[in-house]
Amino acid sequence: MAERVDTEQVRALAREGAVLIEVLPRDAYEAEHLPGALSIPLEELNRDAVAELDPTRPTVTYCYDYQCDLSARAARRLETLGFDRVYDYTASKVAWFAEGLPTAGRIRDERRAGAVARPVPTCSLSDTVAELAQPMADHDRTVVTDDSGVVLGLVRREVLALPPGTAVERVMQLAPPTVRPSIQVDELADSMERDGRSYVLVSHLDGTLVGLIERADLDGRH
User: Fold this and answer.
1) Buried-most residue among 31, 59, 158, 201 (CB within 10 A)?
2) Model pLDDT, residue 219
């Protein structure tokens, strides 16, 4: 049975020279895929399609996301074709893109939220309103993060009017809206307009902060 691997393991395998195979239909591959990956749709995965591949070389199959079973089926098919070092990237390319990693295909990286996001001040739960004055001098928002950079909340400029000793944890907004670095800017602009949002935070799949996008940052980009 093929070993299931996560994003970091796929990156390590790729550095070691593994073959990456996307098994989605070819139009999905052409739109966006992992750099260096081959396109062999599952319905074409036969002996002729892999005749020029080395069955002893590490080979990673992937599809779209956790809900898609094509990568698991493709991994098993490769094993029946004699491949002995097969890995199933179960989370697949959605997880790769959600980490802001490089992509290939028609959709350019500069058209994604990760390229548009800009730095935003951060603070911790233990900070007080008095400690926000300087970082918020030129910003309307500060993001509350933990020691690993995971987004915990958001503080708006209005809190500066509160007593200086007020704890950030007491006044922060819980669950500010976030998107992944991979979302396309035109899709993001449409969703922000539809939901009436003036800003979103960009974060990785593990919740770590990338930056901030305001609606005005998308003007002219979609």
Assistant:
1) 59
2) 77
